Amino acid sequence: MMLHAPTLRWLGAIGFLIALDCLAGSPQAQPGGTAKPPSPPRAAASKTGANVDVADATPEDALKTFMLALMSHDETALRAVTLPGPDFEWLLTGQPAPPEVIKDAQKQFAKMQFKRLKQGEKISLPKGKEYVVKATEVGDDRVVLLPEGSPVPSRLHKVTGHWKVAADPFIAARKAVDAARKKADAKKAASKSK
């Protein structure tokens, strides 16, 4: 399945592929368990006025929820499916995707297939990099997912019965986009002052 052009453009705008450089360094989650049953989807408000239903009973559902909440800047939903860590606010920088892009993404994510990677499995990444799934990244409470059509896997951890996304690659992408934008702005300003 290919994502539609508006959704691809928006995802590209957040610098998703730049996250490759920090795939190795994830924050460690608390050990997960299944003491509490998975929560039913719950609605959360976003800056776009769209509500993102929080689904976190499976890693796949949590990653879909994360992506929609990221696109719509739905802080409540995003916090519900993100591992705690520094710099969370970076996930809410920039402009939210337009409502029509979010609606399109919802339809596409509903059909999206995911591959659960196994220990030792190798994935070829852009820029000639390679990602090898470590034993510490997979288990009953840890999963590495590769969404269909994505060159980049995502790590998820089960915490008190709920699946949560390790957001450090997404945060690194936002920071890299911001740094590149500032560098371009500085270069542009320097060329104007000459």
3D architecture notes:
By secondary structure, this protein is of the alpha+beta class. It contains five helices and eight strands; from the N terminus they run αββαααββββββα. The protein has one domain (5-189). The chain has helices at 5-13, 59-72, 75-80, 99-111, 168-192; strands at 42-44, 52-54, 114-116, 122-124, 130-132, 142-147, 154-159, 162-165. Mean pLDDT is 79; it is low at 8-46.
Would you list the SSEs in sequence order as H and E?
Answer: HEEHHHEEEEEEH
Number of domains: 1
Please, how many helices? 5
Low-confidence stretches: 8-46
- Spatial arrangement of strands, main beta sheet: 3-6-7-8
Q: Which structural class do the helices and strands define?
A: alpha+beta
What is the rounded Rg?
17 Å
Report how far the terminal alpha carbons are from each other.
49 Å
Helix content: 25-40%
β content, as a range? 15-25%
Tell me how many strands there are.
8
Outline, from the CA principal axes?
Answer: globular
The description of the largest β-sheet is: 4 strands, antiparallel
Name the average pLDDT: 79
